[in-house]
Amino acid sequence: MRQRITTRVLVVSGVLVVMFAPIFSLLVYASVEQRHSERQAFRSQEAIAVGNRLEKLVIDLETGVRGFVASGGRDTFLAPWTAARREYPGQAALLGRLVADDTGGRRLAASIKAAIDDYVSLYSLPMISLARDRPDVARSVIVNGTGRDRVASIRALFGDLFARERAVLQRRADRAEARSRTAVALGIGGLAAAVLAIAVLGLYLGRSVVRPIKRVASGAERVASGDLTARVPDDRQDELGDLGRAFNAMAASLEQSREEIDRRTRELERSNRELAQYAVVTSHDLKEPLQTIAVFAQLLERRSRGRLDATADQYLDAIQAGTEHMRTLVRDLLEYSRVGQGEMLRERVDAEAMVGQVMSNLDAAIAERDAEVTHDPIPDLEGDANRLCQVLQNLVSNALKFTDGRSPRVHVSSQPHGGGLVRVSVRDNGVGIDPEQAQRIFEPFARVGERRDGTGIGLAICQKIVERHGGSIWVESEPGAGSTFSFTVPAADGPDRPSAPAPDLAPAAVARDFLRRNGLAGG
Ligand code: ADP
Fold this sequence. Notes:
This protein has 523 residues and is α+β, with helices and mostly antiparallel strands. 69% of the residues lie in helices and 8% in strands.
């Protein structure tokens, strides 16, 4: 049966309420009872105090009558009697109210009141009249002790009342004590039960809610760290079951996607390899027939020169030019394939020597175009010396080639690029490139602008070499304002290595230096 977590939480809360409601009700009941017993005990104490006061008034009555009689009827001696007579009915009524809830006590209080009333009306008032008229008779009555007996019997009643009230007080105090003990026991028991219940329910919720959530969390961590086979239990019929199922579905779909990506990558790699292989084989196979065409075209031209008409000579020239262009294309294509496939060395490259080598290789072109090529000191690089030399040469060669008629001014500079790379830039004052074409020129066989004499594969080869070194290549240019080609490659000594001092830049000397350093100098 599907039992949702909300339901479970509600059930747990219900159980807590059902457990705690009676405990707290009992607690409240016990403390109310205790207060009630305390109040009753206090009433008994009050009753005893009022009884004492009343007993003292009785003594005052007696003292007043006796003094009056003994003094021969002097009114000043009657003052205690007068005051006590005024006060006792109030106190007697109060006593009656305080013991009202105890039948025996109530009866005793009533007897006391009646006895005092009797004493006042049947004994003291007649005695006072008698003392006024016949003091000596009155004195003999006093000596008789009738009044004292009456008072003694009243006090005996008080004795009974006090004994009774003390017993009641004791009972009530005991009861209050017992109730208080019950309340404390209930409080402690309730607290213990609460702690136990909370611990048990917490354990239950921990097992049924927190643990499955932790399992999903650790599954998520495994997925995040790349283990897409991670799955979590999903057989529960609640929200956590939903979560587990959603998680497993997500992991399964991720796993499927990755398998698909892996499969496609393998496919692409395979087809890439086949294509590259095909390009190499095709270019290689094309070389021979092209060579044959070129040789035979040359032979034909030599043999037939002056014997054929001018148009035939033109055709022969066209065949030779086309063949030459085709050979260049095939060579470049082979080179492009090799750069993508062959090994790329990781060695220290003396960049200054490399620049010197490039200048030396392009010596003729520089002289022919009356160009000026300058450069800043460039720090040593890390990579394949010959390939990096090829990149720089291609960029400088293009800078010399794509001019607007002015003498080319080319400058090679470098600066740290961050991430352990150095940026090498080649700036020229040539025709520049339309920004919209700027990205296209790095594609194989892409030629833009008016000059279309090359094969358009030089920059594609540069890009491949640079990318295989972990760098990138780009151009910043404006038509008519020259271009700056930049590429990044790893620095030999970390990102912030200061530029090396410029060596002797005389092309021949630098070339010798480069050949010597790279072990290419013959003898
Ligand atoms: P190619 O091998 O034919 O020289 P590249 O791949 O080196 O071809 O260059 C591709 C195209 O990029 C060139 O045809 C030219 O239009 C443009 N280009 C390259 N370098 C420059 C430059 N320095 N100034 C202007 N255009 C350039």
